[in-house]
Amino acid sequence: MAKSKRQLPSPKYFFSLVEWNGPAFNRRKLHMKRALTVKDIAEVARKSVPKVVFDYVDGAAFEEISIARSKETFSRVEFNPFVLRDSSKIDTSTEIFGKKVDLPIIFAPTGYTRFMHHTGEPAVAEVAEAKNMVYCLSTMGTTSPKELGDAVPGVRRWFQLYLMKNREDSLGVIKQAKDSGFEALILTVDTAVSGIRLKDVRNGLTIPPKIRFGTILAIARKPRWWMNLLTTAPLEFAAFRGWTKSLSELASVIFDSSVTFEDVKWLRSVWDGPIIVKGVQRVEDARMLVEIGIQAIVLSNHGGRQLDRGTVPLEILEEIVGAVGSKVDVYIDGGVLTGQDVYAAIGLGAKGVLIGRAYLYGVMADGGRGVDKVIEILRSELVNTMALTGTRNVSEIRAAGVRIRP
What we know:
The structure is a single chain. By secondary structure, the protein is of the alpha/beta class. It contains 19 helices and twelve strands. The protein has one domain (34-404): Aldolase class I (TIM Barrel, Alpha-Beta Barrel), CATH 3.20.20.70. Helix 3 (38-48) runs antiparallel to helix 18, helix 7 (120-130) packs parallel to helix 18 (357-389) and helix 11 (213-221) packs across helix 12. Keywords: Flavoprotein, FMN, Oxidoreductase.
């Protein structure tokens, strides 16, 4: 039998194998450096903020069945790879309303962003600008449309709107968005009432968070987060400054359970830019919206945060694209946590995806730097998947298609 030839160890060779890393004094930065997936970043986020903050982002409505089903459906997607194609150059760009973006990913509207990290919405918008992406500001944001426009004037920005019971209030917010350079409105229609989010109720969520006996322990555990909260501007809903009542009372003012398709027509009459309707879950509703003349729809169950056991957007995507996709842009959100999830949605016909939890994990973990890392992870995963499937651009992903296994 062949034998290895032995020799005395070479000190030079031995030391060339040693990684000379100094001691890690900042464990969070070390964990962020080592994070390879969005799920890894979520774990850093969990350790970086109080439980009430993480649970608000990570949780969903009632028994959290909808969000679990959305994630599970993505896990059953099967790709259809081409072989023997030159995949040395991958182009992830696409056009949204006639303008090029570098990724088919949009920053979804999310409320209370300064609750996750003191830099708030502008930090996310700065990443969107740097990456040539679209950022959506929420009505429930902790930064006003004017403040965001002043802070990050170069970012492409959409404003998410809830039609309020008092239409004059809605008109005031719409005017502020228009005056502040927002190019589109994204109307959320799945919030006739607020969903039952048991984690938030059990945690006693309020904005700003109340100081209770148990808060003392929370401060001891997360001193950085609390110090940032207490030494920056008061945490409040920018569109409702001065509101002193509870979240549930605010929701009763914002969410109008009487909204119908006629109100969408009214919105069309007072806004001359693109309108995107978010929260569509049925083919017939999509067709009605096309007849009204909106420009895009988002298939969404609100990330499972409103109606639990609602429709899984990915499962209805192909049918709705077949019904209306030639007339409006069709986007999807909910459970998108990897670049392969992005690929899956496009393969089933989506124009692109909206991400919410994914980038909020990055915000909680490390502010704008965390968001930047999330986008780079998603980009890397998408490019890798495109190369391995022989799809060199977004159009080829749609041509290749994907399957959802039973």
